[in-house]
C-alpha cells in the first residue's frame, strides 16, 4: 500500500487527499492509484524478462474502463470470462488479438461474437465446449485458437471458494483426459489447438510457492507428452493466483520474482510462450474504499461503528470471511487509544460488516475511514441490494484525480423496473 500514506494530517492516494475527494464526491467511494497499478504490472513484467511471455490481466478482478485502459497502455492483454468483459476490453482499446476467453459456461452466441472479433484464443474447459466451439467456428468459416484447461488436482491451500484446481472443483478437464481431448481437438474442424492452460486458485500465499511448483511440474510433463505426440503447442497459460497482503505487517506473500523463478526452472527450456492471467496481484493493493461513520452504537458488551458503506459495496468480508485493514483518514486518530469494535453497514443483514472484533481508533460520527486492499473484487462485485446505489470510483494519478464511474442515483435504479399493463396507473383492479 505504498501509494496510500499520510501527509499533512490526512491519508492520501499518491498526492491527493482522500478527505478532499470525499468532500467533492461524497461517501462511500472507491479510489485507485495509477502508480500502484503501473508498479505492480511492471514488477511482474520485469520478473519474466527474458522469457517469451504475455500478461493478460484478469478483467473480473476490476473491470473499470480506466483500469483496463491503464493496463492496455502498459501492453497488457486481457483474460475475460463473459462477452460483457470482452466488450469492455475492446472498448478500452485492447486489441482482440491479445484477449483470451476463459470460463466454464460460454454460450454459442458468446463464442460466435469472440470468434468474429479474432481473439487470441479460448481456454476450453470440457469436451462439450470443444465440440460447440468447433461447430460455431466452422459455421463462421473461421478457425478458433484454443488451449485446453486442465485440472491438475493440486491443492492451492487457499479459501475453499476460490480454489479452482482440485478434482472436486468445476473447472477444467481431468488431467488424465487431456491427451485424448487434444487429439479430439486436432480432428475437429474450425479449431487450432495451440496451448494448455491451468489455474489452481486465487490468493495463494504459500511462501515456498509449492502449489505452483507442483502444478507447473505437471504442466511440463503434459507439454512434453503432447509435443511428442505431434501437437504443435505454442504456449502454456499458467493462469494467475499469486496473493497479496491483506493483513499488513503480518503477511508476506511471495514476490513476482520468486514466482517467475519457479516458472523458469520448470518450464523455461520448453520453448513455449508463457501466458499469465493475474488479477488481484495487479489491482488488489491499488484501491481503497472510503466510507464515513454515521454513528456509534453501544451494544451489550459490544461496540458497533456504523458506516455508510455496506456488504453490497464490498462483499468480501462476509462472502469469504476476508480481512481488510481499516485505517482512519485523519492522521490524528491513529494516536487515540484503540477500542475493540465491529465496523458494520446499514444493510438489513447480520452479515453486513466490513470488520469484526477489530482493535481500532474510537471513531465518531463523521469520521472518514479507509478500507484497505479493496482494488480487487470490490466495486466489480457490488450490487444495488436494499436499493443502494453503486458508489463512485475514482482514479488518481499524481496530483490529479478523476471520477471514472459516477454514483448512480436511486431514481435510475427504480427506472429500470417496468410495470405490466394491468398494474399501470389508472388501471382498474
Describe the structure.
This protein has 429 residues and is α/β, with parallel strands linked by helices. 28% of the residues lie in helices and 25% in strands. 45% of the residues are buried. The strands form three sheets. Strands 4, 14, 15, 16, 17, 18, 19, 20 and 21 form a nine-stranded mixed beta sheet that branches. The protein has an eight-stranded parallel β-barrel with strand order 5-6-7-8-9-11-12-13, surrounded by four helices. It has a three-stranded antiparallel beta sheet with strand order 1-2-3. α2 (34-47) packs parallel to α9. The model is unreliable at 156-167 (pLDDT under 50). It folds into two domains: 4-31 and 285-415, Lyase, Ornithine Decarboxylase, Chain A, domain 1; 103-276, Alanine racemase (TIM Barrel, Alpha-Beta Barrel), CATH 3.20.20.10.
Give the key terms:
nine-stranded mixed sheet, single chain, 2 domains, TIM Barrel, 429 residues, 28% helix, eight-stranded parallel beta barrel, alpha/beta, globular, Lyase, Ornithine Decarboxylase, Chain A, domain 1
Approximate shape: globular
Number of helices: 12
Q: Structural class given helices, strands, pairing?
A: alpha/beta
Radius of gyration: 23 Å
Give a summary of the structure in a few sentences:
With 429 residues, the protein is of the alpha/beta class. 28% of the residues lie in helices and 25% in strands.
Would you spell out the secondary-structure blueprint of this structure?
Elements: E1 4-7, E2 10-13, E3 16-17, H1 18-25, E4 29-33, H2 34-47, E5 53-58, H3 65-73, E6 77-80, H4 83-91, E7 99-101, H5 108-117, E8 121-124, H6 127-140, E9 144-151, E10 173-174, H7 178-187, E11 191-197, H8 210-228, E12 235-237, H9 256-267, E13 273-276, H10 280-283, E14 287-299, E15 302-307, H11 316-320, E16 326-328, E17 339-344, E18 353-360, E19 368-371, E20 393-397, E21 400-405, H12 410-415
Parallel strand pairs: 4-20, 5-6, 5-13, 6-7, 7-8, 8-9, 9-10, 9-11, 11-12, 12-13, 15-17
Antiparallel strand pairs: 1-2, 2-3, 4-14, 14-15, 14-19, 16-19, 17-18, 20-21
Helix pairs in contact: 2-9, 5-6, 8-9
Amino acid at each position: 500500500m505504498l501509494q496510500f500514506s499520510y501527509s499533512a494530517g490526512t491519508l492520501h492516494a499518491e498526492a491527493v487527499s482522500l478527505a478532499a475527494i470525499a468532500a467533492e464526491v461524497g461517501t462511500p467511494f472507491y479510489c485507485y492509484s495509477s502508480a500502484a497499478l503501473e508498479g505492480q504490472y511492471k514488477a511482474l513484467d520485469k520478473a519474466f524478462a527474458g522469457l517469451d511471455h504475455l500478461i493478460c490481466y484478469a478483467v473480473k478482478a476490476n473491470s473499470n474502463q480506466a483500469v483496463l485502459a491503464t493496463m492496455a497502455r502498459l501492453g497488457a492483454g486481457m483474460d475475460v470470462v463473459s462477452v460483457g468483459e470482452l466488450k469492455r476490453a475492446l472498448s478500452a482499446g485492447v486489441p482482440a488479438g491479445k484477449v483470451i476467453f476463459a470460463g466454464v459456461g460460454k454460450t454459442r452466441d458468446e463464442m460466435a461474437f469472440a470468434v468474429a472479433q479474432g481473439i487470441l484464443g479460448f481456454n476450453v474447459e470440457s469436451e462439450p465446449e470443444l465440440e460447440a466451439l468447433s461447430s460455431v467456428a466452422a459455421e463462421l468459416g473461421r478457425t478458433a485458437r484454443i488451449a485446453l484447461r486442465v485440472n491438475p488436482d493440486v491443492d492451492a491451500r487457499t479459501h475453499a471458494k476460490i480454489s479452482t484446481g482440485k478434482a472436486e472443483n468445476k473447472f477444467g478437464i481431468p488431467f488424465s483426459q487431456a491427451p485424448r481431448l487434444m487429439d479430439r481437438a486436432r480432428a475437429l474442424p474450425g479449431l487450432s489447438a495451440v496451448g494448455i492452460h491451468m489455474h489452481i486458485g486465487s490468493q495463494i500465499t504459500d511462501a515456498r510457492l509449492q502449489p505452483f511448483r507442483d502444478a507447473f511440474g505437471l504442466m511440463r510433463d503434459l507439454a512434453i507428452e503432447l509435443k511428442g505426440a505431434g501437437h504443435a503447442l505454442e504456449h502454456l497459460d499458467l493462469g494467475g493466483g499469486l496473493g497479496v497482503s491483506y493483513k499488513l505487517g503480518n503477511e508476506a506473500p511471495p514476490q513476482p520474482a520468486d514466482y517467475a523463478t519457479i516458472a523458469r526452472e520448470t518450464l523455461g527450456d520448453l520453448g513455449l510462450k508463457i501466458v499469465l492471467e493475474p488479477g488481484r496481484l495487479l489491482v488488489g493493493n491499488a484501491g481503497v474504499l472510503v466510507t464515513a461513520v454515521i454513528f456509534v452504537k453501544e451494544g451489550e458488551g459490544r461496540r458497533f461503528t456504523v458506516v455508510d458503506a455496506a456488504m453490497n459495496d464490498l462483499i468480501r468480508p462476509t462472502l469469504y470471511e476476508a480481512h481488510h485493514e481499516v485505517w482512519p483518514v485523519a492522521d490524528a486518530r491513529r494516536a487515540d487509544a484503540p477500542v475493540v469494535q465491529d465496523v458494520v453497514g446499514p444493510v438489513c443483514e447480520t452479515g453486513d460488516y466490513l470488520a469484526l472484533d477489530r482493535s481500532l481508533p474510537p471513531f465518531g460520527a463523521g469520521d472518514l475511514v479507509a478500507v484497505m486492499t479493496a482494488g480487487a473484487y470490490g466495486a466489480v462485485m457490488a450490487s444495488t441490494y436494499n436499493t443502494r446505489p453503486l458508489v463512485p470510483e475514482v482514479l488518481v494519478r499524481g496530483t490529479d484525480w478523476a471520477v471514472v464511474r459516477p454514483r448512480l442515483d436511486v431514481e435510475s435504479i427504480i427506472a429500470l423496473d417496468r410495470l405490466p399493463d394491468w398494474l399501470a396507473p389508472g388501471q382498474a383492479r
